[in-house]
Amino acid sequence: MEISGKTERKASPTGAAIDIAIRLGVLAVLVAWCFQILRPFVSLIVWGIIIAVALYPVYQKLNAKLGDRRKLTAAIMTLSALLIIIIPGVQLAVSSVDSLKTLNTKLVNGDFNAPPPLEGVGNLPFIGGFISFGFLGLFIGAVILSVGYKLLEVWLHEDTQSLPVVEASGPAD
């Protein structure tokens, strides 16, 4: 029976199941994409929650001492957290630059007992490592260069007489 020009449609159980399956599939794809986007930030979010829970009692005490001024308390906590995070990083960067200057001075003056091929490259391992790996690359580049040079040196000066001789076995003629 038609009511005001509209026809009644009865939904079959199969059609409803297909509709639900499609909706669940689309929802699963959206959840997977969201997880892919947020995956790099999961560890940061977890650490943020840990720090927030750990510092909440400090926030409450400071808020009580400041007369229940929540915005001022939050500003003080934020600035102190930034200082705690930034100051060690600045000190590490300054000390690393000083160490690199000292190493460079030793390389240039000849006080550093490096092999001649390594003395000639100067700051290249530091620069290449920094470009490739970022801040840690300042150290990684030098380590890769020195370990590689040592392996090459051992390989070139290897005692070939102490190695066992293996004869090739082929078809007998």
What does this protein look like?
The structure is a single chain. Helix 5 (124-133) packs across helix 6 (137-156). The protein has helices spanning 13-38, 42-65, 70-109, 116-121, 124-133, 137-156. It is flat, with a radius of gyration of 33 Å. It is an all-alpha fold and 173 residues long. It is built from six helices and no strands. The protein has a domain at 66-156.
Sheet of most strands: none
Number of strands: 0
Distance between the termini: 98 Å
How would you classify the helix and strand content by structural class?
mainly alpha
Return the string of H and E elements.
HHHHHH
Percent in helix: over 70%
What's the helix and strand layout?
Elements: H1 13-38, H2 42-65, H3 70-109, H4 116-121, H5 124-133, H6 137-156
Helix pairs in contact: 5-6
What's the gist of this structure?
Helices cover 73% and strands 0% of the residues. With 173 residues, the protein is mainly α. Helix 5 crosses helix 6 (137-156).
Task: Provide the descriptors you would attach to this structure in a database record.
mainly alpha; 173 residues; single chain
